[in-house]
Inverse folding.
């Protein structure tokens, strides 16, 4: 088995894809007006419109309702990302965490939590690998 992607369902694919393009510097790949992907070397963020939900199971996903997932991107310059995203809700300003990583927590245009972080060293823990 191989992990493929995380998909966000939204009422406005262009708006959300634009946010992730600005945040990551990676242009979105568009299949059609209802589906785009931001592909990084380590994973893919898929963005689907509410119209695609019915293709799986009507009513199974609801945009702007996530309160349990944090989407994370490892970046070179946390403060630079902060400067690029001045028009979003900042949950936590760039902060050096107790384990040395620098982190910025924001909400994307649909309210999903997004963490941009830089490890203090290549061996430093990340939120995905606590305690290493």
């Amino acid at each position: 088995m191989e992990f493929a992607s995380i998909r966000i369902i939204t009422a406005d694919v262009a708006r959300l894809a634009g946010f992730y393009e600005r945040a990551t510097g990676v242009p979105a790949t568009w299949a059609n007006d209802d589906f785009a992907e931001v592909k990084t070397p380590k994973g893919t963020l898929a963005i689907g419109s509410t119209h695609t939900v019915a293709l799986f199971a009507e009513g199974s996903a609801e945009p702007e309702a996530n309160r349990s997932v944090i989407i994370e991107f490892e970046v070179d310059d946390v403060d630079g990302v902060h400067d690029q995203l001045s028009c979003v809700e900042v949950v936590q300003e760039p902060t050096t965490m107790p384990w040395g990583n620098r982190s910025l927590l924001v909400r994307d245009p649909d309210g999903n939590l997004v963490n941009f972080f830089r490890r203090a060293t290549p061996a430093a823990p990340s939120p995905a690998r606590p305690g290493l």
